[in-house]
Amino acid sequence: QQYLEGAKLGQVEVYFHETALRSATKAMMWRIVAGSITFLTSLQFSQSIAVALKMVGSDFVSKAATMFIGERLMNHSKAGRSSGTDSAQRSIVKALIWRLFAICNTLAVCLFISKDFSMAYKVAGSDALFKTALMVFFERLWAKIEWGKDYQVDFLI
């Protein structure tokens, strides 16, 4: 049937899944990068190292696990994956989905710790601006890294 729809004999489609270790490594590396930005923005708006460290600590714990889970869930979708890599569109969608969750999480954590909505809003807002673009770059960089990709090849005959 696929041959009648235009597939060529012997055509090979390459798909991959990320290993759990790759997902965990990506999540931890992103938490280090993102945590550094959250520390700087929290310090800027709170003027307190203690408050900034509390925010980063809470942020790190809550988001490291959720990012790993998100990576594992996204791993089940083949959308935007071809030729053994993620497309730019997939990277953008992943970044936007993750950042939507992360902005809400950062706002809640900052509000809980600081009890100051204005400061929490500023931290979450500035994080959103910096980290959304950085997350797309991070995903594009990881799309080029082969380590931890488990390839599956489908042959159409």
Q: Can you put this structure into words, describing what you see?
A:
- The chain is 69% helix and 13% strand.
- It has four helices and four strands; from the N terminus they run E-H-H-E-E-H-H-E.
- It has helices spanning 20-46, 49-74, 88-114, 117-144; strands at 11-18, 81-82, 85-86, 149-156.
- A hairpin with a 2-residue loop joins strand 2 and strand 3 (85-86).
- It is elongated.
- The relative contact order is 0.21.
- The model has no long low-confidence stretch (mean pLDDT 86).
**Largest β sheet strand count, sense and barrel closure:** 2 strands, antiparallel
Helix content, binned percent: 55-70%
What is the strand arrangement across the widest sheet? 1-4
The strand count comes to 4
Low-confidence spans: none
Order of helices and strands: EHHEEHHE
Rg, rounded, reads 19 Å
Q: What does the average pLDDT come to? A: 86
End-to-end separation: 10 Å
Structural class, judged by helices and strands?
Answer: alpha+beta
Query: Treating each run of at least 4 consecutive H or I residues as one helix, how many helices?
Result: 4
Shape descriptor reads elongated
Binned strand content: 5-15%
Q: What is this structure's SSE topology?
A:
Blueprint: E1 11-18, H1 20-46, H2 49-74, E2 81-82, E3 85-86, H3 88-114, H4 117-144, E4 149-156
Antiparallel strand pairs: 1-4, 2-3
